[in-house]
Amino acid sequence: MVNYKFWWGAALILWCGILTGVQGVGRPKGVSLEKASFYVGTEFKCLSNGKTIPMEHVNDDYCDCEDGSDEPGTSACSNGLFYCENKPYKGTYIMSSRVNDGICDCCDGSDEYDGTISCENTCEKLFAEIRAQQEAFRKKQEEGYKVKLEYIQQGHRVKEEKRARLSELVKNKAALVEELDNLRAVKDEAEVPEKEAKDKHEEAWKAIKAERQKQRDAIAAAQAFAKLDSNQDNVVDFPELMKHKEFDIDSDGTVSEDEAREYLEDSEQTDLATFTEKIWPNIKEIFKLKNPEEVKEGEKSETAEDIHVEDGPPSPEVTDEQEAATPLDVSTDPDAITEGVADTAIPDEDRDKYYDEDDEDEEEDDYPGDDDEDDDDKVDVNEQQEKHKPEDEEEKMPEYSEETKLLIQAADEARKHYDEADEKVKDIEKEITGIEKYLEMDLGPQEEFSALKGQCFEFTDREYTYKFCPFDKTSQKPKGGGIETNLGTWGHWYGPEEDKYDSQKYENGQGCWNGPNRSCHVNFHCGAENILTGASEPSRCEYQFDFTTPARCSEPEPLPTHQVHEEL
Amino acid sequence: MSKTMLFRIQTLSWTMRGFCLLLAVLFCTCLGVHRENFRTCDQSGFCKRHRNMQPGSSDYVVQASSLRLSKTSLMVDVLNTKNNVRFLLQVYGLQHGIFRVKLVEAEPIRQRYEIPIGVTLVAEPEQAELVYHGDSNGQLKFSLGDNQMLINSNPLRLDFLINNEPVSSVNAQGLLKFEHTREKRAAKEEEAGEGAEDEVGAENEEEKPSADVDDEGMWEETFKGFSDSKPNGPTSVGVDIAFPGFRYVYGIPEHADSFALKTTKSTDPYRMYNLDVFEYELYNPMALYGHIPFMVAHNDKHTVGVFFQNAAEGWIDIQSNIADKSVFSNLADFVTGNNDVPQTDTHWFFEDGIIDVFVLLGPSPKDVFKQYASLTGNTPLPPLWAIAYHQCRWNYNDQDDVRTVDQTMDKFDIPFDVIWLDIEHTDGKKYFTWDGSRFGDSVEMLRNLSSKGRKMVTIVDPHLKRDDNYEKYTDARSQGLLVKNKDGNDFDGWCWPGSSSWPDFLEPKVRKWWADQFSLEKYQGSANNLYVWNDMNEPSVFNSPEITFPKDVRHLSGVENREVHNIYGMLVHQATWDGLLKRSNYKERPFVLTRAFFAGSQRSGAVWTGDNMGEWSHLKMTVPMMLSLNLAGIHFSGADIGGFFKNPDSELIARWYQAAIFQPFFRAHAHIDTKRREPYLLPEEHMIVARDAIKKRYSYLPYWYQLFYESETTGMPPMRSLWMEFPSEANIFEKDDEFMTGNAILVKPVTEESQTSISVYFPGKDVVWYDIDSYESYSGQQEKIVQAPVSKLPAFQKGGTIVPRKMRGRRSASLTYNDPITLVVCLDKYGNADGQVYLDDYHSYEYRHGSYALTHLSFHNFKLENNILHIGKDFTTKEWVERIIVVGVNTEPKNIHLIDADHNKMDLGNRYDTQTKVLTIRKPGVNVAQKWIINLH
Questions:
Q1: Which of A269, B510, B576, B641 has the largest CB neighbor count within 10 A?
Q2: Could you tell me which chain A residue has the CA closest to the CA of B877?
Q3: Do residue B883 and residue A62 have CB atoms under 8 angstroms apart?
């Protein structure tokens, strides 16, 4: 508690005696020397609006002027200012509300004069402290500034080097690009005959395969037809279909007439020809699911179901997932067969069995290591691969002709040259971009912050080690070890307009639970060395670093030739 | 701070990553209350049993022949004719116009819990003469002053009348149900009789073999996988209380709902069970942190109240009707003429305890407040600093942070008196300790604050970390002071520190032990300017059903928490209060903030409305919630300025500061995950609004202080609904978007975004209102649009009042003790006004020994007189009258002179504004605590 007892016990040295009291040489209390001239005579004009009041109303503890100028020495005007003389040092203003409030605000104690509290004159001590601080700072500044000059030199040098390198690169690039254009032309030229020859070969192969497929389909259809045609009258009608549960569209356990007709394309019956052409394509997936034997014989190469049968118990109770996946098990898409020359090594069906996903694009992503399934599964796949090799021979495209091979070889050569040149251009472009990015970077008005780039600084408190890599990122890591948390990557200079190099902002760090992404505000201070001096989290997930660096030291003022009373 | 699993997890996650991640998965992260954590009526056996009852003829009958009378009370036997269980009805006449009705079992197998004197009731209520007028046709008539009571014998019903006009009736609907004590073994056998009592409709009784019907929930209940063992079986009590002639009832806080209570026909009943509710919803009868079973009914003629003293979980159903003459056939005799009498029926039921109802017969609002205060006590006058501005946040990180806030507030010229530390200041959430790495020299920190007259409040929650190196815990454990689980071991629950135990505050010796912990020796690192905040005292137990004690937790006396749940939190802050009293040797006024509360909490704690949200709707809700709290005796109450959760924009924060100027407890607070929002951090436009608001609060502190003096001496709440000041204006009975602070200031806070004008209803026939800033006038009983740009809080001083202010803008309230006063005199249409000024030393109990000054100011016939109503023998003050602003002076006075206590005459200067008709009298300079007269000629 403050000395409130004083307030009560204090003698009634109330304002009365002091109100009109003037200080020193005839100016009213709380008035600075420069304003003293306004407070003479028998009348006082409020400083801002010229309203006139009798001089005895000045400092009478009642606020008459809207601007508070009539009560410089009391707390009567809430917007007034009181001038602390702070002799023998330089004076300063405090808010009027701090006059006679029981707290010593002026170091000379002149703001507390109503007897409630007695204030020591602490100006001497205060001044000494301030001098000491100024000295210390000045020393730091001097040392730092020396380093800064080196930084500046270094920064300029680096920049010059970069610029020189850039113009060299730009020149080189032009030559390389020209060369690249030439090589592209050569390559394009070689690729035309190559493509023609390859296309021709592949078209022919495609036709052969389509024919084979058609034949297989017809055999399968015939077998299915035979099985469905239970009365063997060479016609399949809806009562026959109704015997087969797989036609139960609504899964109510029975195949209704409507359901059967649906499959018969609304006809009463169908003969083998129509069946093969129209109906079989629609039912072959569901039908063979429940009748694996037929499928096995009919579609030898598309071995989904026989593998099921061989590898494990047939599962009439397959899981939902499997069921959902099965329609995709069969590559009825003719493109798949041609596209997937390499694919044929592993039947799609096998993969589906192991990669229990219904991925429509599976033909394309079937390279070992191309997905994130377990290694165990991959081993199995390879085994399957081995096992089915002989069967797949049939599907393999014959080799290109010797003539075609030569064309390919020539084109490969041209491509290689082109790619090598292209690589060079890309490298050079990359370097150019890097240098341009550097040159765009604001490294201070004199490149003095350039020296910090590429370095990192650490600060460790009770819990964490904080890391600051200027122009790169900020992070923290638990002291006892653990994962590093990104507190933000380089954003921009963040100081106020008049002093933008006062601080930096690092943004878009790791997200906070239920909060914003972490960010970090780095304050730069002048110091003889680069040191991260502090790190805190004043607001949740908003960090603050303090960093001293010579780069922030300005040139020390020349030492005053005589001892002056510094401003407090 | 806040509390729910949800954000609990966040905090923990901050420090205990692994654990938090686990929990984070367990609890969903959506915003909003987790309703499923809390029982609905359907999930509560006794609630269902009572709610399912239908109005009809009661089974309870008064045996009039057994009537025993004393001068101030009566006693009579009551029989439940369905099961022949006998009860004892006692009615006491009390001072100030209160009836106390007690119904207990005549021969209980086990004693039912009754709250001891000194817990809710401040003392044994003083009795008054109860006159018996005889028995006419089974109706026993009594009178108590101007009030009457009729006891109908068959069935039992009690009617209460003011000057022979019925205002309240107990058991008029026949919903009385008192589940008598019983043995479990015998339960089945009794079902035959008991079942009927417990069953809904009479028609079911015969048909249903009751054995299986009523078993449900009677001897065991489960909720969310937690089993409640219920060793005593069904123990609930309930009864209906009707208010014929009243359309509106108020009170029974704390609910985030409108001030006028709503019918609960299509919702759950209003629930009363102290709970830690995370991100509570608005306009909802769910229970919150504290409860006061006190309800007030008001109409244009009468104001009456009902206080149902019961510490167990309770529910209240409310229905507003036109009076039902079939149920009230007997009452109808009294209701003459008008057939459309509005009526409010209420139905109260509690899980345990007895029926102990106080009927407060007003008949005016101020009489009801006086009556309620006579029972549960007053709000003691807070020290001046406590009604000034409090700067809080979860958390100020360390001593540097505290110093920076302190200095920056000064730099921006924003006054404040108190800075707060939430749970992070402790060493591992062990209360009474400091985190040494961050608050290594708390005494130094406290001294720095003290040098500007400032205080600190630290949080001290009632859960003790179960840590063998934590002395408070080991001490309490070895002395056997801890609450037990149903098996008799120390109850072990999860709270901020992890595994925790709770002292049994029901025991006086435990409260004493707790109080002793606040001495400067025991609370190391504290100082005399450190005060205390009790949070989580419902209590909050993270891993327990409904986030609180299981109901079968045992207190040391053997009672279950079920019987006493709602008083636990109050006993925590009472003990803390006692500790602070002891610390100053009973000289200084303590300050304790509590989240949980009960009837009587006002005697030892300020209350805040818990973990609200930084949303406009929550700003709006502050008014009805605080009106309810003020009505129920919790005068020193407030809401977190800005809202606890979320990041409110700066406009909302600025508006919130404005609204809170005229709400009693003035504290900004924010969740640990929110952005910093100390007022100086707001964009300049809104920083200025917030600063002006805080400064305005400081300028009105003399008025606030006088209102709190009035609160302590009369029971009048400082924050009042419009009807409390204008009781016969029927169109304002529902109004809860405006309020009065004292009798002088009408406030219409702006609670919508981007609003620049607002419609204000000005109550009072022939009343003139003056804008407190511009002195523009508005006449009463009209709705008017007023300008309200973001810089402006619409607030108006009533013509006919005098309000004292201090305008010097000090850094803290403690620095204003000697400052001069400005009197704002707003004249009514007859040119009159009056008011009071109360002065004392602003911090000690000396005023209780008469060391204070109370003056009455009256302006009449162009003469302002200051008359001393009281001045302590040794009391002096330096406070003097700086200026007098007289508003509504139609002609400029030619001259003004002052006559002081010594009859000296002195001319005074003045300024008269012909436009606004405001006369400013310059510097009378007289002491406030002296007699003086100022004449205008």
A1: B641
A2: A8
A3: yes
Q: Which residue out of B257, B611, B840, B900 is catalytically annotated?
A: B611
Q: Is A14–B528 a contact, with Cβ atoms under 8 angstroms apart?
A: no
Name residues whose C-beta falls within 8 Å of residue B144's C-beta, 6 or more positions apart in sequence: B93, B97, B99, B128, B129, B130, B131
Question: B247 is written with which tokens?
Answer: 């359309």
In sequence order, the 6+-apart residues with CB closer than 8 A to the CB of A196 are none
Task: List the one residue out of A194, A191, A190, A180 whose CA is nearest residue A419.
Answer: A180
From A98's Cα to the closest Cα of chain B, the distance in A is 7
With an 8 Å Cβ cutoff, are A536 and B397 in contact? yes
Q: Which residues contact B607 (CB under 8 A, 6 or more apart)?
A: B290, B593, B594, B595, B597, B601, B629, B634, B636, B637, B665
User: pLDDT tens for residues B706-738?
Assistant: 999 999 999 999 999 999 999 999 999 999 999
Identify the active-site residue in B59, B240, B417, B535.
Answer: B535
Q: Which residues of chain A are within 8 Å of residue B809 when distances are taken between CB atoms?
A: 78, 97
For residues B247 and B344, the answer to whether their CB atoms sit within 8 Å is yes
> Whole-angstrom Cα distance, residue B878 to residue B820?
8
Other beta carbons less than 10 A from residue B314's beta carbon: 29
> Would the CB atoms of A97 and B413 count as touching at under 8 Å?
yes
- Rounded CA separation B183/B190 (Å): 10
SS3 A338: helix
* Phi, psi at A27, each rounded to 5°: -105, 150
Closest CA relative to residue B882, chosen from B822, B803, B804? B822
Which pair of tokens denotes residue B296? 């007030």
CA distance B354 to B106: 12
Query: Touching check for A4 and chain B: CB below 8 Å?
Result: yes
Bridge partners of residue B919, in order along the sequence: B886, B912
Taking the CA of residue B673 and the nearest CA in chain A, the distance in Å comes to 5
* Cβ count near B850 (within 10 Å): 13
- Closest C-alpha among B916, B846, B843, B914 to residue B875: B846
**Among this protein's residues, is B535 annotated catalytic?**
yes
Task: Kindly report, residue by residue over B114-153, the tens digit of the pLDDT.
Answer: 999 999 999 999 999 999 999 999 999 999 999 999 999 9
Nearest-by-CA chain B residue for A542: B675
B611 noted as active-site residue: yes
Task: Give pLDDT tens digits for A372-392.
Answer: 444 444 444 444 444 444 445
H or E segment and range at residue A23:
strand A22-23
Does B403 contact chain A (CB < 8 Å)? no
Find, among A527, A547, A560, A446, the residue nearest to A145 by Cα: A527
DSSP string, B3-27: --HHHHHHHHHHH-HHHHHHHHHHS
Which A residues, 14 through 53, put their C-beta within 8 Å of a C-beta on chain B?
14
Tokens of B203: 């028609």
Pairing mode, strands B777-779 and B768-771: antiparallel
Query: Does B407 reach chain A within 8 Å, measured CB to CB?
Result: no
The sign one gets for the Cα dihedral A391, A394, A397, A400 is positive
Contacts with A, B 907-936, CB within 8 Å: 922-923
Tokens 């009705």: give the residue.
B101
Q: What contacts A501, CB < 8 A, 6 or more positions away?
A: A444, A445, A449, A493, A495, A524, A552
Peptide bond into B539 cis (omega under 30): yes
A194-208 confidence digits (pLDDT tens): 999 999 988 988 998
Residue A293, phi then psi, degrees to nearest 5:
-60, -45
Give bridge partners of residue B308 from the DSSP assignment.
Answer: B357
Note whether B673 contacts A: Cβ–Cβ < 8 A. Answer: yes
